[in-house]
Amino acid sequence: MKTVLKILKILLIIVIVFVAGIVTYALTSYKKTFDAPFPDITASTDSVVIARGKYLALGPAHCAHCHAPTSEIARVDAGEEVPLSGGFNFHIPLGTLYAPNITSDKETGIGNLTDQQIARALRYGIRRDGQAILDLMPFYDLSENDLRAIISWLRTQPPINNKRPDHEYSFLGKMVKTFAIKPSGDGEVPPTPAIDSTATYGKYLVNSVANCRGCHSQRDLMSGAYIGPELAGNMHFEVYDENGNIVAGKHLVTPNLTPEPNTSIMARWSQDQFIQRFRTGRVIPGSPMPWGPFSRMTDLELKAIYKYLRTLEPVWMEVPVGIQEGDPDV
User: Fold this and answer.
1) Cross-strand pairs, 240
2) Beta pairing class for 246-253 and 327-328
3) Model pLDDT, residue 208
4) What local confidence, expressed as pLDDT, does residue 329 receive?
5) What share of the chain is helix, strand, coil (3-state, %, to 5)?
6) Alpha-carbon distance values, 125 to 20, 42, 72, 122, 139 (Å)
7) Residue 20, phi then psi, degrees to nearest 5
8) What residues does each domain of the chain span?
């Protein structure tokens, strides 16, 4: 009996030492850095390029939805231009994430970053200090021209001194960041698509610019990994108020965007109804859908998106309805 107890004691000590080692490693290594090449991107002063960047940043790429001050969210919803001096605070199980100031301010914004550093952040998901960016800003597949255009427009923005806190990770966040988070971009650059109303351009907007997949596909909230059929909806979101605080007792659920006739809004809407929905704007308060920026999209681009969504493989995905279970944001 004493021998058994002695063995159990030794095993317990081994387990404790192992767990302590894992915890210590996570607490000291969650800021680990990664390497990736700096894209050969240089900002342009061409007015046409800058105009394209402005349209993308304030429209389908919806930068203002996170990077504008929360006090300006009503103007963002109205489709107005607001300074991107830092805004939303994401309170999630991994900790609190602060959308940074991306004006040209050299002290608190991106004024001291090179064009190539900004390009690497967008193309590979790596911060200026080498840490991986959580997969909330997936513009890895922007075409070369559109990436250049957005950086060119950002360079024209007046500097606004607004220091934002660095992300504050919980213990769980540090563990996940140490063992599960890595840069998401692979550096592959898609060809520059023709801007027209075809499904081809719609596919580019949906997958590379507007990040429809990021909300309309089920994801693991810890790692960000996709765990459900693409664009089939049923991703649950907590509702945030204008101060970034969670509204208790209510969730929103993203709708199915595949053309499945029984469970999808896409099977019921005509092209005109689809466009009109974007012109209507926000209907449900607290919805994560960036209706304001998306309202700036042209009819041509909305037609392209509609056509592409209609080409998707239909997926049966019942979305729960109700205040407690979730309100599909349509």
Assistant:
1) 246
2) parallel
3) 94
4) 47
5) 40, 10, 50
6) 31, 18, 27, 6, 8
7) -60, -40
8) 31-187, 193-330
Predicted pLDDT of residue 300: 96
Token pair 């090179």 is at which residue?
114
What does the pLDDT read at residue 327?
A: 45
Question: What's at 65, amino acid-wise?
Answer: H
Q: Is 264 helix (H, G, I), strand (E, B) or coil?
A: strand
Question: Tell me, what amino acid is at 112?
Answer: N
Rounded to the nearest 5 degrees, what angle is found at the Cα of 136, between the Cα atoms of 216 and 145? 95
Q: What is the pLDDT of residue 154?
A: 97
> In Å, how far are 7, 18, 155 from 324, measured between CA atoms?
51, 41, 44
CA distances from 54 to 39, 84, 112, 208 (A): 21, 12, 21, 16
Mean pLDDT, 10 residues at a time, over the chain (330 residues)? Answer: 69 71 70 92 97 95 91 85 89 88 96 97 93 86 95 97 94 85 81 91 96 89 79 84 69 91 90 95 84 93 97 89 42
Place of tokens 């309170």: 91
Q: Kindly report the backbone phi and psi dihedral angles of residue 159, in degrees, each rounded to the nearest multiple of 5, phi listed first.
A: -70, 135
Note the pLDDT of residue 286: 76
User: Closest Cα to residue 57, out of 126, 134, 110?
Assistant: 110
Q: Identify residue 95 by its one-letter amino acid code.
A: G
39, 121 Cβ separation under 8 angstroms: no
- Residue 265 CA to residue 319 CA, distance in Å, equals 11
User: Which DSSP letter does residue 329 get?
Assistant: -
What's the sign of the alpha-carbon dihedral 77, 199, 153, 49?
Answer: negative
**Residues whose CB is less than 8 angstroms from the CB of residue 304 and which lie 6 or more positions away in sequence, other chains included:** 196, 197, 198, 199, 200, 201, 202, 205
Q: How far apart are CA 281 and CA 75, in angstroms?
A: 12
